[in-house]
Amino acid sequence: MKNLPHKTIERLSQYRRALLICAAKGKTHIFSHEIAKIQHITPVQVRRDIMLIGYTGTLRKGYNVQELIDLIGDIIDTKEGLNVAVVGIGNLGHAMINYFNGKRTKLSIVAAFDNNPDKIGRVFSGVRCYHIDEMAGIIKQDNISIGIITVPAGSAPEISEKLVESKIKGILNYTAKPVNVPNQIYLEEYDMITSLEKVAFFVKTHISDNS
Amino acid sequence: MKNLPHKTIERLSQYRRALLICAAKGKTHIFSHEIAKIQHITPVQVRRDIMLIGYTGTLRKGYNVQELIDLIGDIIDTKEGLNVAVVGIGNLGHAMINYFNGKRTKLSIVAAFDNNPDKIGRVFSGVRCYHIDEMAGIIKQDNISIGIITVPAGSAPEISEKLVESKIKGILNYTAKPVNVPNQIYLEEYDMITSLEKVAFFVKTHISDNS
DNA sequence: GAAAAATTGTTAATTATTTAACAAAGAGTT
DNA sequence: AACTCTTTGTTAAATAATTAACAATTTTTC
Question: Which pick of A49, A87, A151, B31 has the fewest CB atoms within 10 Å?
């Protein structure tokens, strides 16, 4: 169980989300093919992922929903939780904060940063916005481990540098501009234009090869 | 050159973005290792991707920036372009529209849909918002091929169904809830919580194995 | 003009991920 | 109690993606 594949990690997060919904509906057990259906993947893949984390279901009854939720939590969460900051309170940053509001998770967005004076000091969906220059101080004070970059693409490198200086541990960069960070910092980049262009490509070539 | 790997498609989109910036700066040629540096990948991978699309650089001079931009365009764009609609004008939908504004690309967001009466009829960053019930009509009339779902997770299945009925060809689902579509429709799903949980996991296990 | 350095293009090897195959075993059926 | 069906867990095979290795060739340097 030492080295889980990256893809498995992603799926575990998704399984958990689906399982929480099932639990809320009062479902106590679930089959691999049911999870698979929800996630549009194969039952084998679900079973294999679950095998990798060392959980065992009951033959002909499936997996215990709550146990599986808890186990996934043990794997992907930290006990104490991690604090997160959003840098850039535009629409995207705001969406990010809203997204998390109410989601009970071990990840909490505890601060936001921007350089627009109109935003400094205001509280957005429960998250206070500070000036970017206060970043190092707040990140230390609030023990923030992860920074989400949602500024305009042009400012991304500068922001990422500031996050690095502030001793951040992980960065999620949502701008179209790739940033460079020392490699003890975990960096994940995602860009919506690429995704849309990818969809466009497959629409163009009318390949329909996803489940 | 028939079957490009999915990952290559994504990278081509990213290369092009980087190349456009280079071109704007007046750079006429670029080496594989320069592109690699920008994208944090290896030069071999860049060369291999470029090989796959059948382009050939000049030994010791690198690739012609403009030619490469044009060729990538031939591959991932359609000649006439494709029209896109955003469903759900919350922060995320709004971010999506802004993101695209001014980006010269063969993809145009030409319509938005929402069910909030306050938004119907308004124009957001140049994109008119219609009621969700008008979807089928507008999608047909404006020849829209791709739908981006940015509604609250709970409404995703319903919206996706409406898009399918409207004969959409590709869907990009940004909600945390996976949707089911017939498989001649290309579906791409992305969910920010999963990404953030993934970063958290790798921060937790302080693995620093990305370039 | 020979040698060294740089850089592409490509095949082969490696690694990562998914899928197939199937044994094992519980539950229901006759 | 034998038979059938279902579903898990796991090994093996297949597929996909990345990386290594290196020949070929142009430019630069001596």
Answer: B31
Tens of pLDDT, residues A10-56:
999 999 999 999 999 999 999 999 999 999 999 999 999 999 999 99
Which of B95, B154, B194 lies closest to A107, judged by CA? B194
Same domain, A51 and A99: no
A87 SS3 class: strand
Q: What does the DSSP 8-state code read for residue A155? A: G
| pLDDT tens profile B32-82 | 999 999 999 999 999 999 999 999 999 999 999 999 999 999 999 999 999
- Domain limits at B14? 6-76
Question: Least CB-CB distance to A95: which of B17, B92, B145?
Answer: B92
**Same domain flag for A36 and A128:** no
CA angle (A103 as vertex; A97, A109 as ends), nearest 5: 40
- Mutation target to probe the A interface, by most A beta carbons within 10 A, among B17, B19, B109, B196 is B196
For chain B, what is the domain count? 2
